[in-house]
Amino acid sequence: MWIQRAARMSAGNAWRIALVLAGLLAASLVYGEIGGTVGAEIALAIFLVVLVVAWPRPRAGSPGRAVPWRRRRRRISELESELAYVRSGIDELAGERDELRVELREREAAQREHEAEAASQAAVAAGRLAEARGQLAAVERARAAELERVGDELRVRTRAVAALEGALEVEVAARARAEKQLASAEARIAGVLPDDSGPHLLLVARADGYRLVVRDGPAPLPGAAVELPGAGVFTVSKLGRSPLPGDSRRCACLGRPVGPGGGETG
């Protein structure tokens, strides 16, 4: 008797285990297809439905515990309604999944287009940068050449200025020597010739001898005619130093007086 009861209990437990495993399998398939939080909720709902169906199953032959057929059909109908609701939810989620996939594809296409446009703009910018660098290098080369030309010209002008300064120094030295020689010559001349800026002497030759006459102004040159009041007009025969000792004045020697006809008188 107890063997039959154990067999009936084992059959009921096997039925429950099979339904639980089937529920787990269906839940895992739904979660793998949908994924995310929604998939997990749907898988949990399916598992609970299967568990509710499997657990209260009565053991075969248990007196007073048989579930009426109408209640079973009502329960089955409720479960079918829940399953239809779950399936409709699954269909809605599948539709949302398809929409999300389409949106994802559109976003990926837009992203690829944006990346392609960015790459094109980057290529254009790189080309412009290379062109700008080339222009800058050309400007720097031209500036370097100009600086080198200016430097060469500056060196040439510096050498020319140095040569001019050397020539100027030579000229200045030569001029200084000439001025020194001129000053020396003027000093020598000043030492030989008396001062001609002040009064001078006239040495007049007369029949009874010579007479010195002092006159203001510069001394007359040789050959010039000099008129003396009361004595007549005389001709300067020569010009020299004063015959007086220590006298620096010049002295003009006068010859015989000139007659009315221009000749000398006796």
Task: Record keyword descriptors for this entry.
single chain, 266 residues, alpha+beta, 3 helices, 5 strands, rod-shaped
Structural description of this entry:
The structure is a single chain. Helix 1 (2-34) runs antiparallel to helix 2 (36-54) and helix 2 (36-54) runs antiparallel to helix 3 (69-192). With 266 residues, the protein is α+β, with helices and mostly antiparallel strands. The model is unreliable at 57-66 (pLDDT under 50). The protein has a 5-stranded mixed beta sheet with strand order 2-1-5-4-3, with no helix packed on it. The protein is rod-shaped, with a radius of gyration of 74 Å. Among the domains are: 2-111; 200-258, no CATH class. It is 66% helix and 14% strand. The protein contains 3 helices and 5 strands; from the N terminus they run αααβββββ. The longest helix is centred in the middle third of the chain and has 124 residues, at 69-192.
Fold blueprint:
Layout: H1 2-34, H2 36-54, H3 69-192, E1 200-206, E2 209-215, E3 225-228, E4 232-241, E5 250-258
Parallel strand pairs: 1-5
Antiparallel strand pairs: 1-2, 3-4, 4-5
